[in-house]
């Protein structure tokens, strides 16, 4: 049976659409689906041409509401070279989150984008089986 639903877009609220768009386009290599408006843009994986193409889109929305901490949702970004990706993202304007609840065997690092939206950079080791 074909699934009835799939994740199409993940929406992040932002204050500065241009700054956030620049960050996420560069971080993920995504492209604008259409020309951004003053308060909305959808970013797609490169080459995505229809709704059923693989890869979730990322939408950025200016809402005027303050960020909530801790946020109730975040992105997990998978990285083969976690240290290099964390360094690259910090260079793009991401910030480290002062979080003290990492377990000793944590395979993720918590960062936030230019708008305070949190995300984790996860070290992708062997894929769990079973």
Essential attributes:
four-stranded mixed β-sheet; alpha/beta; globular; about 130 residues; 2,3-Dihydroxybiphenyl 1,2-Dioxygenase, domain 1; 2 helices
Summarize the structure.
With 130 residues, the protein is an alpha/beta fold. Helices cover 17% and strands 28% of the residues.
Description:
This is Glyoxalase-like domain protein. Residues 6-124 form the VOC domain. There is one protein chain. The protein has helices spanning 17-28, 82-91, and strands spanning 9-14, 31-32, 40-44, 57-62, 75-79, 95-96, 108-112, 118-123. It has 2 helices and 8 strands, in the order E-H-E-E-E-E-H-E-E-E. The protein has a single domain, classed as 2,3-Dihydroxybiphenyl 1,2-Dioxygenase, domain 1. The protein starts with 8 loop residues before the first strand and ends in a 7-residue tail after the last strand. It is an alpha/beta fold and 130 residues long.
CATH class: Alpha Beta
| Widest β-sheet, arrangement of strands | 1-4-3-2
Please count the helical segments: 2
* CATH fold group: 2,3-Dihydroxybiphenyl 1,2-Dioxygenase, domain 1
Which CATH architecture? Roll
Protein name: Glyoxalase-like domain protein
Pfam families: Glyoxalase_6
InterPro entries: Glyas_Bleomycin-R_OHBP_Dase (IPR029068), Glyoxalase_6 (IPR041581), VOC_core (IPR037523)
Domain VOC: 6-124
Give the secondary structure arrangement, pairings included.
Elements: E1 9-14, H1 17-28, E2 31-32, E3 40-44, E4 57-62, E5 75-79, H2 82-91, E6 95-96, E7 108-112, E8 118-123
InterPro entries: Glyas_Bleomycin-R_OHBP_Dase (IPR029068), Glyoxalase_6 (IPR041581), VOC_core (IPR037523)
Domain VOC: 6-124
Organism: Microbacterium trichothecenolyticum (Aureobacterium trichothecenolyticum)
């Amino acid at each position: 049976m074909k699934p009835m639903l799939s994740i199409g877009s993940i929406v992040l609220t932002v204050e500065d659409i241009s700054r956030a768009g620049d960050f996420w386009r560069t971080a993920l290599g995504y492209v604008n689906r259409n020309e951004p408006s003053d308060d909305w843009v959808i970013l797609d994986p490169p080459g995505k041409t229809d709704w059923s193409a693989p890869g979730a889109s990322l939408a950025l929305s200016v809402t005027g509401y303050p960020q909530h901490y801790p946020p109730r949702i975040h992105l997990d970004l998978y990285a083969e070279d976690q240290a290099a990706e964390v360094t690259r993202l910090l260079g793009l304007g991401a910030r480290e989150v002062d979080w003290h609840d990492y377990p000793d065997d944590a395979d993720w690092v918590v960062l936030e984008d230019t708008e305070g939206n949190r995300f984790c950079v996860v070290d992708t080791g062997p894929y769990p089986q079973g």
